[in-house]
Specification:
Layout: H1 7-21, H2 25-54
Length: 55
């Protein structure tokens, strides 16, 4: 099925990422992505609370 990623494809992607960034940079990248997602969720929550107060 096109468009569906299985275990072999995910492993290949992981190997390529390790080769490009190196083992030491991967935790930093993951931490940055996690912080970005957390900030986005906080902003969405604050935006919903702000729109409720305006009504």
């Amino acid at each position: 099925m096109p468009g569906k990623l299985g275990l072999p494809e995910l492993l290949l992607i992981l190997i390529i990422v390790i080769l490009i960034f190196g083992g030491k940079k991967i935790p930093e990248i993951g931490r940055g992505i996690g912080e970005g997602i957390k900030n986005f969720k906080d902003a969405m929550k604050n935006g919903e609370e702000g729109s409720d107060k305006k009504k």
